Amino acid sequence: MFDFGLILFYLGTFLTLFLGIFYLITFFDNKALLRDPKIKRFPTISIIVPAYNESRTICRTLESLRALNYPQNKLEIIVVNDGSTDDTYAIAQSFRGVRVLTKTNGGKGSAINFGLRHATSELMAVMDADSFVSRNALRKMIGHFRRDSIMAVTPTLKVHNPKGFWQQIQYVEYLFSVLFRKIFAFLQSVYVTPGPFSIYRKSFFDKHGGFDEANITEDLEIALRIQSLGYEIENSINAEVFTVAPSNFRDLLRQRVRWYSGVVNNMWQYRRMFTPRNGNLGIFVLPVAVISVVLALAYLSYYGISFAQTVADGFQQMYLINFDMAGVAANYVEHFSILRWINPISMLAVLLIMFMLIMFGIAKLYSRDKARVGGGLVLYTFTYGLIFSAFWFTTLAYKLFQLRVRW
């Protein structure tokens, strides 16, 4: 008999194991390249901090930038106050050596471009006003601009001081991304330059224009544009940058709907990149990203409907036996056998979990992460797939009903 759920399970398991093994082989085959290249010279760099109502975090952001271990005469910090209505402007003004510009509110892309027009350095970095950079991050990243074809370098992005269920989930998610982003760099397939402290050659913007101000995920668009023009994006797994992650479901949902809507928009805009001409990115990394989302949605749809049907059948049976809970429990204990759990599906599920734990351990080891895992990894293991799929369903609903995506 045709079992769609079983086919989905085996397809997802095969894809996960195949990709995981391929990614690990790629990682260890290039392990000698994990060490950051030596700096031959210190280029000038302008760090642009777009800020809108960031009074709670911008002080620590600027403190971390002022503490960077880099020649101060080569470093310029520009805060762009994007029409804030709180104390962002006053706090930024209180920092010596920080240049503060102000403009009417126009969005993050607009603020970055405003800063770009005032920057005169060879390199340009973007720094979110709710993130904090480690002291030596800049030194670790600069050496990666060893070829003229390298137009951007990304850092290792981690969650700052994760607390509570939602931040613990994101802590594990971000740590996996640390590993994958380095592997994608080995494959020359990095397709997003995160807002917290990605560094670019300013000459790229002078030649190809600034950030797309109408794009809700400007960091994804600019990365795809860089790749589409034949340039490279590198990554430093040793340059730590910490960001304040959403601490509740509402804020996280709003963030992910924006991110995933941006993925849909930009994948469509750059659909021409799904070709062998774009190497591993076009024939492997981008298609796999799309397939993974499709499979996740299929999983949630099928098993969600199956679960609802099971619950409905259970209530019907309970009604027929007059809700005799004691009788149901006794019957379950009588027929329970551990042998029923020893089958190919459960064994594959255990294998997947073990493989995921191995990859997490590798990510934690090679990124030198010192945060305590706590129960975050357990929460991630058993809930992330459901949460990820639910966010995608919400995003598709926004697209279908043409709802406005907000920051």
TrEMBL record:
<comment type="similarity">
    <text>Belongs to the glycosyltransferase 2 family.</text>
</comment>
<feature type="transmembrane region" description="Helical">
    <location>
        <begin position="6"/>
        <end position="28"/>
    </location>
</feature>
<dbReference type="GO" id="GO:0016757">
    <property type="term" value="F:glycosyltransferase activity"/>
</dbReference>
<feature type="transmembrane region" description="Helical">
    <location>
        <begin position="378"/>
        <end position="401"/>
    </location>
</feature>
<dbReference type="Pfam" id="PF00535">
    <property type="entry name" value="Glycos_transf_2"/>
</dbReference>
<dbReference type="InterPro" id="IPR001173">
    <property type="entry name" value="Glyco_trans_2-like"/>
</dbReference>
<keyword id="KW-0472">Membrane</keyword>
<feature type="transmembrane region" description="Helical">
    <location>
        <begin position="281"/>
        <end position="302"/>
    </location>
</feature>
<feature type="transmembrane region" description="Helical">
    <location>
        <begin position="345"/>
        <end position="366"/>
    </location>
</feature>
<keyword id="KW-1133">Transmembrane helix</keyword>
<protein>
    <recommendedName>
        <fullName>Glycosyltransferase 2-like domain-containing protein</fullName>
    </recommendedName>
</protein>
<keyword id="KW-0328">Glycosyltransferase</keyword>
<keyword id="KW-0808">Transferase</keyword>
<dbReference type="InterPro" id="IPR029044">
    <property type="entry name" value="Nucleotide-diphossugar_trans"/>
</dbReference>
<feature type="domain" description="Glycosyltransferase 2-like">
    <location>
        <begin position="46"/>
        <end position="208"/>
    </location>
</feature>
<keyword id="KW-0812">Transmembrane</keyword>
